[in-house]
Each structure stands twice: as structure tokens, then as C-alpha cells.
Amino acid sequence: MSRVPLSLLQQFVQVARLGNLSRAAEQANLTVSALSHQMRQLEERLEHRLFERGPRGVTLTAEGCSLLEAVGDHFDGIEHALTRYRVRRHDSLTVTASPGIISSWLMPRLPRLLATHPELELNLQSTNTLVNFEREAVDAGVRYGKGEWEGLRSEYLFGEWIAPVAAPSLVARMAGADPLDLAQWPLIGDPNRNNRWNEWFAHYGGETPHRYVAHVDTIDALRQAALEGLGVALGRMVTSKSWIDAGRLVVLGNRYLPVPEAYHLVYPPRSEGHRGMATFRTWLHEEAVAYCREMPQPLRDEAAA
């Protein structure tokens, strides 16, 4: 045990904190299988099981928690001590955001940024997990929430609206059903355990259904279920717009409901002097303003109100 390589313990700390082998492997520039093998090797050396492995990631056992508590802060101290010696590249920027906002909003707009700033090297981290800016080499992020994240600068970009969306195949099957009377339609339970549906019916009237055709636990799964024609979902307009524009989803009834959460640019204080960050920040706010002008009229009316 005295000869356990520090590299194994370092990878253990990363996996334990992220709870995800894929993300930890990406940050370590390893394959998932290689990192998984290293973790099993560490367990064999220590003769203790450190992780419970499941379809949604890994969780620590009691022994794993004890080990993380014992060694985690020491690696943080080393990382902090080495920060001052890093060479900071002002033409390289690492940005984190959810897969939905990257694919549906950021990616279609990035060519404009890189066309005007070809010197900028942009590294995108696609994850639904909130990164720890103190521990990870990330410069900024686009987050969905109410704008309050401890220790981070937060700048409002644009709001979010929800609306009932369905695949054209479902609309064809439900020919004759009133798009304003959702009681006639199969509804998909939302990841918030139907709080959004409750808000929708409270605002527009109608009764919450006694049962839903299905329940999902992530926004990505909700959108996919709607795309497959399983039922009607309350879709976020920002991340659903590209699917609506492509004709793969249809808004039922042309009614929208604003939600308390919005999209924000977030970054730690250390990123304020980063020239690449300043370029990205200016561009992002310009794109946000332009996006708000492109909103459907009902959404622009809500925004103005």
C-alpha cells in the first residue's frame, strides 16, 4: 500500500468528485476503459471496493468516501500551489455548458465568432454537471438557473419559455383533437415531477391529468420522447427551437409560459483578465441580444412585459 502510485490516487479523486468515468477520462486524456482499469487496479492494491458502478455513473462506497476525505484536500493543496506557475494562454478558452445549449444554441453561432477571431482556440465541455471552477481548468460557462452561484460572476443572457410540443407524427395521429385542450392528448411527465405541468394548467386553465403516458428524468430524454411521438412534452423553447424550425416538433396552440430560470454567462474572478474571455463575453452578449430579437412574437411580447 505504501507504493500506491500517486497518479492512481489523483485519478481516483477526479472520478470520485465527478461521479462519471467518461468526464474524468476526458479530462485525464485517457480512454474510459483505461481509467476504469486503473480504478480496479487501485481497489485491488488497497483490497477494498471504492466504487459502486451503475448505468448513470459511479458512486463512492463507505471506503471510497473515507479515502477521498483523507487524500482529496492534499491534492487540492498541490493544485493550488502550482497555479502560479502555469502559463496562461490568452488565445485559448475553455467553456462548459449543457449538451442541449451547446448543440442547439452555441454551436450554430460559433462559426461567426471564429470567423472574426480565428486566433481563438475554443474548448467546449458538454456536461449537465456543474463544474467546480476552483478545481477544474475551466474559464467560463453558460448555466441555466436563477443567476446565483456562489463565488462566480453571473451575467444574464436571456430568459426561457416552455410550451407544449409534439412530433408531427403524433399530431397526424391525433387529427381532430383541439391543440388548446391538452386533456385530449397523451402527456409526458416532466423531469421536475410535473411541477411545470401544474404551473401550465394553473396559468392557462384545465386540470392536471391523473396519469401521464410516461415519465422521464432528464431534459434530453424528454425531448427525445417527444421527437419519437410518444406524447406531448413541455419543451424549453431555447433548446427546442432548432427542432421546431426543422419541422421535427410542433408547438401546440401557440401559447408560451415564461419560467423563473434563465441562461447566464458565469465565470470565476480569475477569468476577468483573460483576453480570450473578454472576446467571448462581448460576442456572447451580442448574440444574446440578437437572439431575443428573433423570438416568436408571443415570446417578444412576454419579454417586453
TrEMBL record:
Q: Which SUPFAM superfamilies match?
A: Periplasmic binding protein-like II (SSF53850), Winged helix' DNA-binding domain (SSF46785)
Source taxon at top rank: Bacteria
**Alphabetized Pfam families for the sequence:** HTH_1 (PF00126), LysR_substrate (PF03466)
A Gene Ontology MF term for this entry? sequence-specific DNA binding
Q: Name one GO biological process term.
A: DNA-templated transcription
Task: Specify the HTH lysR-type domain's residue ranges.
Answer: 4-61
Coiled-coil spans in chain:
none
Write out the entry's keywords from A to Z. Answer: DNA-binding, Transcription, Transcription regulation
Q: Which family, according to the similarity comment?
A: Belongs to the LysR transcriptional regulatory family.
- The name under which this protein is listed is LysR family transcriptional regulator
According to its UniProt entry, this protein's organism is: Dyella monticola
